[in-house]
Amino acid sequence: MALAVRDGVLWAVAKGFQNVVIEGDSLQIVSALSDHSCDRSVIGHIVEDMRIRSTGFLQSLKMCVPMSATKATPWPIDSLAIA
Question: In what residue span(s) does the RNase H type-1 domain sit (predicted)?
Fold first, then answer.
């Protein structure tokens, strides 16, 4: 999951997006991205890479959405959704 979020951040940076919503069903990843302290978990290096690469965003909102809520999205699958 962390690598998928990082790929989404890389894609958003490459496309030049400045306002980004990052949502996922992993509370660990969303919390780690929101917390600016040093992450010493197994995914810490991936989280740090995402933080560094997303410094160009003017605004980024991180949300944890329960997996049950992600099954019925109101938007088409091919619309912009990171992670």
Answer: 3-52
Distances (CA, A) of 33 to 19, 23, 59, 77: 16, 11, 13, 24
Distance of CA 29 to the CA centre of its chain: 8
Task: pLDDT tens for the chain, 83 residues: list them.
Answer: 788 888 988 998 899 988 888 877 878 888 888 787 887 888 888 988 888 888 888 877 777 777 665 555 554 444 444 54
Cα–Cα distance, 82 to 26 (Å, whole number): 13
Contacts of residue 82, defined as CB under 8 A and 6 or more positions apart, other chains included, come to 5, 8, 9, 11, 12, 20, 21, 22, 23
The counts of H helices and E strands in the chain are 4, 2
C-alpha to C-alpha distance for 41 and 32, rounded to whole angstroms: 9
